[in-house]
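Narrative of activities, Objective 1.

The group set out to show that a structural description can be obtained from nothing but a protein's sequence at a throughput compatible with the screening campaign. Below is one input-output pair from the validation batch, recorded exactly as produced.
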Amino acid sequence: MTSAAPDAPVSPRAHHLPAAGLAVVVTALLAGLPLALDGIGRVVAVAALQAALIAAWGRATGIRGPAGALVVGAAASLAADVVLLLPERPTLDPLAAVLGLGLLAAVVHQMTRPAPRAQLVPSLAGVVLLLCAVCALAVLLVVGRLDDGPGAVIGTALVVGAALVVRHLVDLALPRPAVAPGVPCGAAALVLAVAAGAGAALLLGDRGSLADVLSAVTSGAAVGAVAALTSLGASFVVVERAESGWAAAVLQAVLPLAAAAPVAYALTLNGLG
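Output recorded for this entry:
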């Protein structure tokens, strides 16, 4: 990565509106399909999000060797989904093998690129991040198999969606105080996004006692914070690439959900989701 400041001004409308709109679509997909089709719907939703992120990755990040990255990402997402669905007991243990073999595949991918292999380290880092992102999305399949897991997946989708929509709309209206020159994002949006995540979790959770309220608010704030910060990082990438098309919107809408999925797993596993 280089400087966050772009050569040309970034249009806040083009940067935030498509991402906010797609965040609504992603939320509806991940929350709606499991309600309609139960476990099959959850698998279809996760696979669709993985496919969208893989398809957008090369254009959104500008890594070298995008075709190879697409193959590595697709193979990793398929393997992650299969190994997490097959065991009778829901566990993340098989994911270690997918990540290990995926890292080896990413290295081989860079080794087989034509010389002089420009930007080798950034491209390797980009493929590894894609590998981690698609595997993180697969974690939602395990979350859905835990006790109270189906509701936790839907709740995570709604909390992340609320945080992302609030962040983008607030940044569109008032990106202050600016986080970096040339990036149409402000600290106020981050704070309000975390608050939106906490509020969404409170509305969805059990409010029978003060402990239940505190648990819901804390969990929602944690998931919302991870999603908002990851969304901000995606904004930096989009600004540096001067990318405002569909790939930029996908990166900003799906990558935060991937980052939030392991947090949701930990919270649900410990009865806090």
